[in-house]
Every structure is written in structure tokens, then in C-alpha cells.
Specification:
The protein is α/β, with parallel strands linked by helices and 859 residues long. The protein is 44% helix and 18% strand. It has 31 helices and 27 strands. Helix 5 links the parallel strand 10 and strand 11.
């Protein structure tokens, strides 16, 4: 326990898994936490004469099952191993922490999601600016950026790190800027020193400056990146040779998607349980690397038309060439998670089976290279030329590692036959030991003529030859007598002793030789980390583009035309997610949208509830976003002037944890939009102002639209959906505001939603009709209709107070009157009962009358 507490003091905030023989044990508070999370038994053990200590443990071979559960529960886990063989020491076994696993630093496949990056982030904040870095230690991807707090917050949302580091003592400031939704860990302030970070990065990359990475002039980003490398040291991750570069995230290269927009457009997650998101629809990748890259592409759409068209050209080619697409897909399917396997090589955690996978992947890359070389597309040929075949290491793995190699050294044969003569000899002895002994026995019988001679074994002096006393005179002189029995004698020979030495230490020798040879193969693989990482990156890119081609074919998407103008012209646009949710007999109603900065900058959309206003807003943003990612779009045609920012303000939710009402959240999001407008922004506003009183809401909505229209430098293209029909008046006063509505038809008192965007405003919301569709009690719906008529009448007469009093005076109250219900059947029953002379009614007449009422009611 003294040794345990000494180790525990180094990482008091982590659960310490303390290796004791074949078990990992936890003690005290750690044991209590571990037993609750893992569901393992909590016991107590005497710790000295006066106290007890809690204890919970599990077998060491179950680590891969239990470790992920602890990490997913938000725990930091320190793994303390036995650092020497217990057989070789008479004292207490030396132990030490070999790894600290945290939510943001993990290599275990059971902790990691195959199609998700496991980013560790680090934020360094000053008074006005902040730096941020992101590292996925399982893939070696390393990014850095700096900018405003809002920009860093946007990146944190985009990258969704599993753990965020920041300066100790700045809790309040961090939460104020970035919220409390992240798992965080505080690091000492001195770690963020610019000089310390700069030197650490130079030492790691072994360069004279950081100019080659494009981060030389980013002091805040350097501080954050340096602190991440310090954290890897802190968590005992010293083998990080696979982190070979750091990439600068340039704000002006990507479309601005703030955290509200990513949430509102439901790109990756939805507030509704089991709802489909955009990534669910367009992610048709088949490799884990592709699955991770497509999320980053979606979070960081491009603004460079040339780069976008390069992607679109490849997608178009793959759509037309099915044989190329299918051939490449088959090869990519065989590659697996090349990125994470080569990272495991760098940190010395790769298993024999993963090395075999790596060999298979290199074979598949050869196939991809050949396919790309024949492709009639320049970008694909360029990609193919960059692929490295790594033939020498592939052939070495094929020659030295068995194809059926398992995950663990020592559990099955790993090294192929013919690689090492000593290994082959020992294996032959292990596998054919009995045959070898029988050969010696038969040879000695023939040599000596002792037919009853036999070779046996005991624990005292090992292998021996036993001869009956009747034949002892035939024993050769080179045999050494070892034991005399009543009726026999036992002998040993030099040959038997030599064999014995080999057979008794065979398993250990085989394990040692296999480990040595396997380590040599892994060491050779280390030299190929850079080209194999490049291969993984190129395959991920190709996988994404093939996925875009597949989704375009599956859903009937078309190629967008990207132009350097302010025009947004979408023909027959559809919502990519909603259309996939429809039944087979339903067809999504497509709509045209046209916006520019000269004639139709702002479209004011009115229309009833459930008509499809919100879907129209979202689909416009998603079409633009998909186009600038390099994907075909759900429209018959789309001419898209490059957008640099997409803002959305849709839906309404409280932020109760921070004491913010629905309206306050709405105003926060709206303020963020107005303060960050640019000439190429696309703004989508849905029901602004509905969280407050009607006239307050109208006033705010009107002034926001007016601000966007009259902005001196930024004529942002805007779609504004509203129930405030008064806003239709703005078309008469502002040149670039146009009224549209989502049409409906009213037939026989029923409303049919046409879901078609047409010119002109509307003044009817049909909210009462939606209430009826939702199953509201009939009396409530009808009463609402009466009140609406009175209010509309009062509004036209500008005398609202008096009608409100009258409405209240005629209220039905909670106990609804039977005869107030406006139902013809009930009226007829009422008339029947009114006409009865109950005082003179005989029993038989009463029964007949009751029967008539029953027939009227249809019972």
C-alpha cells in the first residue's frame, strides 16, 4: 500500500489501475468509483491493525473491456504496470505508470470510434485573442489556429474535441467564452509560454523554424500547440514520431459556420432523438479514414472555386465511370484503418494481426494506383502518382509474418517458417518431440540390441534411458548411469541432455525469438510512417469523392455551378434529409430560390404553420453548403455565387442552465448574425421575435430586416420566414425586399399544404387548423375559431379593448356546457328533450323516447 500511495500521489485525479499479478486492482475512492462504473464487486481488506481499505479489481486480460467504460464515463485512468519479472526479485516488485489514458488521449480501439476523430484540444486565451490546437494522437493529425473568441468557439464546435486543455485559474473566463459542454483539464500557466511552446515544437519536428508549417506568426496558436505536446509527456506518451506536421487552419479559406448554424442545420447531431442528420445522408464512405475526413469537409466548406471544381470534376467522372468507381471502392474496402495502424507502429502498440492488415492495405493501394493511372481524369491520375507502394516493407511482412497471425505475441505462431533457422529447429522439436524421442529410442535399440529399452522423463533428472537388469551388460560405455532400481537401471546421454535443454526452454525461446523478429519488422516499418500516412490521407480523400458520387446517383443530385458573383439561383431545390424520410408514395415538392444583391436581396416568406417555410430555409443553406464542400446537390440546377458565411436563426430553445429564456437565446443568435455580416453572407431567419409580445416581435423583426437591407457594405442574401404579416408592407418601402408565400388550398373547410413557394404575401396562418390536426379537443378548436373572428373584426375596427371584454364575458369556463357545443346531432337531441312533458310521461313512453334519442345519436 505504501508503494500504491506513492504512485497514486503523482496523478491524484486519475483512477489508478495497479497491476498485482494477474489482476488490475483499485483501492479506496478509486475502487468505489470503478465499482459503480464497471459494475464489479467492491470489497474491503485490512490495511494495518486499525483500518480497512476498499478494493475492486478485474483480470489483466479484461483491460480492453473495462478501460473504455472508464474513459467514456469521463475518467482519467493511470495504468501502473509491474516493471520487472516477479520471479527475478525477492523484494516487492518494481512498479510504475506506463500510460495515462484520458478521453482525449487514447489508442485503444474499444475507446475510439472508427469514423470519428478523437481530438484533444488546447485553448490559450488572452484578453482579446485566443489560440487553439487540435491533436488526434491516434492518427497523428495536428491543427492550429488563432483568432477571436468567437472563431475559436466555432472551431471547438466544428472539431468536437473529447477533451479540452486550458490555463489553470481561468475557469470563469473559459466558461464565459466557450461554455461548459466540454470535458476539460486545467494545465499550469507556465506551460503556455510562447518561447516554451516554440522550442517544444521545434524540438519535436526537428526544424529550425515553424515557417514551413505556416504558424510562425501565430503566437497564441504556438502556445496552445506547445501545451498539447507537454500534455503528451505528462500522460506518459513519449513515442509520438507519427505526429510529423502541424497544419494551419486559415479562417479566410473556409466558409464561416458558427455553432448556432451547425446546430440549426443538424449537420452532425439533432436535438430530436433518432432523427437523421445531413452526415447520415451524404456519408457513403467505406473506410474509417474517409468517414473522419468527410466530417471535417462538412465542418469546413471551401471558398476557393478552383479547389471546389477539382472535387466536383472527380465526382462527375466517377458518376459516369461505374467500373472505375466500383473497382476503387473494392480496393478501399480492403484497406481498413490504415491511418491508425501506422500510428500504432510509431508508438510501439501495433499487433501482429494489424501488421498483416497493413500488408493487405499496401496490396490494395497497388490496385488503387493502377486504377488511377488508367483514369481519364487528371486529378485522379495525380492522386495515383502520389501513392507510395512501399514494396520492400510489404514483401518483408509477407515473407516474415504469417497471414493468420493473431493479436498477441506468444498466443499462436507469428513468424513464418524459413525466417530464422534456430526458430525453425525449436519449433520442430516442440511440434515433433515424441517422434524425435522415438527415433533416438529406435536407433539405440538397433545399436545395442536391447529390445526392451525405453526413454522416459521425470522431474528429478529429466530424460533418461531405462534398461532391465537382464540387458545391463549390453549398455554402451558412453551412457552415464544415473539411478539404480531393483529390476532396472537408468542412464542419461549427452544427446538426451542437449535435447532436454532445448525442449524445456522451447516455449520461452520461441517467444523471445518471435518478439525479436517482430520488433525488427516494426522498427523497419517506422521508416515508412510518412509515406503510409500520405497514402491514408489520399485514400480518405478518394473515399469521400466516391461517396459523393454514390449519394448523387442514389438521390438524383446534379452538379452545381460555382461562380464568383453574388447570385444564388436554385432550380427545383429539395431538402436532402427530409426527402429521404418520406414514404415511397410521397414526393418531395421542389422549390426555386433566387437571391442577389441588386434586385432580390431579401425574400420575406409568409405562410401557414406546417407549410414548409423552415424546410425551405434549411434546404437552401444545405444546398449551398454541399456545393462548396464539393458534392452534387439536391436540385435540377444550382448556380451558386461563392458564400463566405452562412448564418441561421431557426427553432427556439431555452438555455435554462445559464438562466437564458427562449427569447434571450434567440436575441444572442440574432446579434451574432448582425455583428458579423459580410457582402457574401447567406442569412436564414425563421420566426424572429416570436419569443416576446406581438408588437415587440414585429418591431424587432422589422428593424433587423431593415438593418440587413440598408447595411452600407454588406448586402447579405437573406431568407426571412415570418408569421408577422405586417412585414409584407416592407416590400413597398424597400427596393430589394420581395414577398413570397408557401401556398395552400382551402377545400371544403380543409387546408391542403401545397408546399410551393409563390410570389406575394399572405395574411392567413391556419394555426387553428394545425391545432385540430394535432388532436386538440373539438370544443377548444371551435372556441378558438370564434375568438379569432372577434379579434380580426376588432382589429379591422381598431377597437380591441371592448371585444376582449366581450370574449371574456362569453367564456365557457373549465366545465363545458353540454348545450353550448355546436353540433347538429346534439342540437336535435336538445330539441327532443325540450319538447317533452316529463310530468305526464308514462314509463313506456319514456323508454320509447329514450330509444328515439339513441337512434338520433347513432348508437
Amino acid at each position: 500500500m505504501k508503494q500504491y500511495y506513492s504512485v497514486k500521489s503523482k496523478h491524484p485525479d486519475a483512477i489508478l489501475l495497479f497491476r498485482v499479478g494477474d489482476f488490475y486492482e483499485t483501492f479506496g475512492e478509486d475502487a468505489i468509483r470503478a465499482s459503480e462504473i464497471l459494475g464489479i464487486t467492491l470489497t474491503r481488506r485490512a490495511n494495518g491493525s486499525a483500518s480497512f481499505v476498499e478494493l475492486a479489481g478485474f483480470p489483466h486480460h479484461a483491460l480492453d473491456n473495462y478501460l473504455p467504460r472508464l474513459v467514456r464515463a469521463g475518467q482519467r485512468v493511470a495504468i501502473c504496470e509491474q516493471l520487472e519479472d516477479p520471479k527475478l526479485t525477492k523484494k516487492i516488485v518494481k512498479r510504475g505508470i506506463t500510460e495515462l489514458v484520458t478521453p482525449g488521449v487514447a489508442f485503444n480501439d474499444n475507446v475510439l470510434e472508427h469514423k470519428e476523430n478523437n481530438f484533444l484540444a488546447c485553448v490559450y486565451a488572452d484578453k482579446k485573442l485566443a489560440g487553439v490546437s487540435f491533436l488526434d494522437v491516434s492518427t497523428g493529425e495536428f491543427f492550429a489556429a488563432q483568432g477571436t473568441f468567437e472563431y475559436v468557439d466555432k472551431l471547438l464546435t466544428n472539431f468536437s474535441p473529447k477533451e479540452v486543455l486550458y490555463q489553470r485559474g481561468t475557469d470563469h473566463e473559459f466558461e464565459a467564452h466557450f461554455g461548459s459542454k466540454f470535458y476539460t483539464y486545467k494545465v499550469d500557466e507556465w506551460v503556455f509560454g510562447k518561447e516554451i511552446g516554440y522550442e517544444r515544437l521545434l524540438r519535436h519536428f526537428q526544424t529550425a523554424s515553424l515557417k514551413g508549417f505556416g504558424v510562425e506568426d501565430m503566437p497564441y496558436a504556438i502556445s496552445a500547440a506547445g501545451a498539447i505536446l507537454y500534455y503528451l509527456d505528462l500522460t506518459q506518451h513519449h513515442q509520438v514520431g507519427h505526429i510529423r506536421s502541424i497544419s494551419r487552419l486559415e479562417e479566410d479559406r473556409y466558409v464561416w459556420l458558427d455553432k448556432f448554424t451547425i446546430r440549426n442545420l443538424e449537420l452532425f447531431n439533432s436535438v430530436n432523438e433518432n432523427a437523421k442528420t445531413l452526415i447520415d445522408v451524404i456519408d457513403q464512405t467505406i473506410s474509417p479514414m474517409g468517414g473522419r475526413l468527410i466530417k471535417r469537409w462538412l465542418a469546413l466548406p471551401l471558398k476557393d472555386i478552383s479547389a471546389i471544381n477539382t472535387r466536383l470534376n472527380v465526382v462527375e467522372f466517377l458518376i459516369d465511370k461505374e467500373d472505375v468507381r466500383e473497382g476503387l471502392s473494392q480496393h478501399i474496402y480492403e484497406i481498413g484503418d490504415l491511418e491508425r495502424i501506422i500510428s500504432k507502429v510509431a508508438v510501439g502498440r501495433v499487433t501482429p494481426r494489424e501488421v498483416v492488415h497493413l500488408r493487405n492495405a499496401l496490396y490494395a493501394i497497388k490496385g488503387i494506383k493502377e486504377e488511377c493511372a488508367l483514369a481519364e481524369n487528371g486529378s485522379l491520375r495525380d492522386l495515383g502518382e502520389q501513392l507510395a507502394l512501399c514494396e520492400n516493407i510489404r514483401q518483408r511482412i509477407e515473407h516474415e509474418i504469417r497471414p493468420e497471425a493473431g493479436n498477441i505475441l506468444g498466443k499462436g505462431s507469428i513468424i513464418a517458417d524459413g525466417v530464422n533457422a534456430e526458430l525453425d529447429e525449436i519449433r520442430a522439436i516442440m511440434n515433433h518431440g515424441k517422434d524425435f524421442l522415438l527415433q533416438i529410442q529406435q536407433r539405440e535399440i538397433e545399436r545395442t540390441g536391447i529390445t526392451s529399452l525405453k526413454i522416459s522423463y521425470n522431474n528429478v533428472f529429466g530424460y533418461y534411458i531405462e534398461v532391465r537388469n537382464t540387458h545391463k551388460d549390453k549398455v554402451p560405455s558412453d551412457w552415464i548411469r544415473k539411478q539404480t532400481l531393483v529390476s532396472a537401471e537408468r542412464y542419461i546421454t549427452e544427446e538426451l541432455k542437449h535435447y532436454e535443454e532445448k525442449i524445456l526452454g522451447a516455449e520461452e525461446k520461441v517467444l523471445a525469438l518471435e518478439q525479436r523478429i517482430f520488433s525488427e519488422v516494426v522498427s523497419a516499418l517506422v521508416e515508412y510512417i510518412a509515406p503510409i500516412q500520405l497514402n491514408a490521407s489520399l485514400v480518405a480523400r478518394l473515399d469521400c469523392l466516391i461517396g459523393f458520387a454514390k449519394v448523387a446517383l442514389m438521390n438524383g443530385y446534379s452538379r452545381p455551378l460555382l461562380v464568383d458573383s453574388d447570385v444564388l439561383d436554385i432550380k427545383d431545390g429539395r431538402h436532402p434529409v427530409i426527402e429521404k424520410q418520406l414514404n415511397h408514395d410521397q414526393q418531395y415538392i421542389a422549390n426555386d430560390v433566387y437571391l442577389d444583391s441588386k434586385n432580390q436581396q431579401v425574400i420575406m416568406i409568409t405562410g401557414p404553420n406546417m407549410a414548409g417555410k423552415s424546410a425551405l430555409l434549411r434546404q437552401t443553406a444545405l444546398i449551398v453548403l454541399m456545393a462548396q464542400v464539393g458534392c452534387f446537390v439536391p436540385a435540377s440546377a444550382a448556380k451558386i455565387g461563392i458564400v463566405d458565411k452562412i448564418f441561421t436563426r431557426v427553432g427556439a430553445t431555452d438555455n435554462i442552465s445559464q438562466g437564458e429564456s427562449t427569447f434571450m437565446v434567440e436575441m444572442h443568435e440574432a446579434a451574432s448574425i448582425l455583428n458579423n455580416l459580410s457582402p457574401r453572407s447567406l442569412v436564414l431567419l425563421d420566426e424572429i421575435g416570436r419569443g416576446t409580445s406581438t408588437y415587440d416581435g414585429i418591431s424587432i423583426a422589422w428593424s433587423m430586416v431593415e438593418y440587413i437591407h440598408e447595411h452600407p457594405t454588406a448586402r447579405a442574401k437573406t431568407l426571412f420566414a415570418t408569421h408577422y404579416h405586417e412585414l409584407n408592407e416592407m416590400e413597398n418601402s424597400f427596393d430589394r425586399i420581395k414577398n413570397y408565400n408557401v401556398s395552400v388550398k382551402e377545400v371544403d373547410g380543409k387546408v391542403l399544404f401545397m408546399r410551393k413557394l409563390v410570389k406575394g404575401g399572405t395574411e392567413h396562418s391556419f394555426g387553428i387548423h394545425v391545432a385540430q390536426m394535432a388532436g386538440m379537443p373539438r370544443s377548444v378548436v371551435e372556441r378558438a375559431g370564434d375568438i379569432l373572428k372577434e379579434l380580426e373584426s376588432a382589429h379591422r375596427g381598431n377597437g380591441l379593448d371592448k371585444p376582449v371584454d366581450q370574449i371574456a364575458a362569453h367564456r365557457e369556463g373549465m366545465q363545458l356546457s353540454f348545450f353550448q357545443l355546436d353540433d347538429p346531432v346534439l342540437k336535435k337531441i336538445r330539441d327532443e328533450i325540450k319538447g317533452m312533458d316529463i310530468n305526464n310521461l308514462t314509463p313506456i313512453e319514456a323508454l320509447n323516447k329514450l330509444n328515439e334519442i339513441k337512434k338520433i345519436a347513432g348508437l
